[in-house]
Recover the amino acids of this structure.
């Protein structure tokens, strides 16, 4: 009997504690820094993308291209490889980098391979279903001059109670016609110190 009483008491306490658990949601500014885990986050992606875009458009190759061609360079965003020990959605980095580049007003960006298929399907559909005056012509796509690609790596230094994570992001601009790398950039400003509790299991 006593055993059943103790079991009932435990279940009652558990029920009360479960009922007391609640969650709160706080809305924050989109550009505020919220670093909870110490791992890569959206703030890091924004900082790195803005910096690399500025490096790229302020470098000597850009002025030389403008002088020789009298137009803005056309860039396509290639792959960003994740060579870290954590899961990073590199498509977010790619898109933020594209946004940063376009917002400089100094380059043009064209759709990548997956985006092109969707657009081409729409253009093909227009040839059948749209009016002659409004249907967009086939074969008038703008070709990219360069592909921007890169990778992200980490160096982790740890002593058990503290670890330091340093992120190294490199980017390279490749001439699509010649495969020549005409610009290389890097950012290693993202460094995080993570301290662990001494009672951590």
């Amino acid at each position: 009997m006593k055993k059943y009483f103790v079991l009932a008491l435990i279940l009652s306490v558990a029920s009360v504690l479960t009922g007391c658990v609640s969650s709160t949601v706080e809305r924050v500014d989109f550009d505020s820094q919220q670093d909870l885990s110490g791992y890569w986050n959206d703030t890091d992606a924004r900082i790195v993308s803005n910096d690399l875009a500025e490096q790229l458009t302020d470098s000597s190759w850009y002025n030389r291209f403008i002088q020789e061609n009298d137009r803005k360079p056309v860039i396509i965003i290639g792959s960003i490889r994740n060579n870290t020990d954590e899961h990073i959605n590199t498509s977010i980095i790619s898109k933020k980098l594209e946004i940063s580049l376009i917002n400089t007003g100094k380059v043009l960006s064209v759709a990548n391979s997956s985006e092109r298929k969707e657009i081409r399907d729409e253009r093909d559909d227009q040839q059948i279903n749209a009016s002659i005056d409004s249907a967009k012509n086939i074969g008038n796509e703008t070709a990219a001059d360069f592909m921007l690609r890169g990778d992200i790596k980490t160096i982790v230094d740890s002593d058990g109670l503290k670890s330091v994570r340093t992120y190294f992001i490199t980017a390279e601009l490749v001439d699509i016609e010649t495969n020549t790398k005409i610009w290389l950039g890097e950012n290693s400003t993202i460094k995080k110190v993570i301290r662990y509790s001494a009672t951590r299991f």
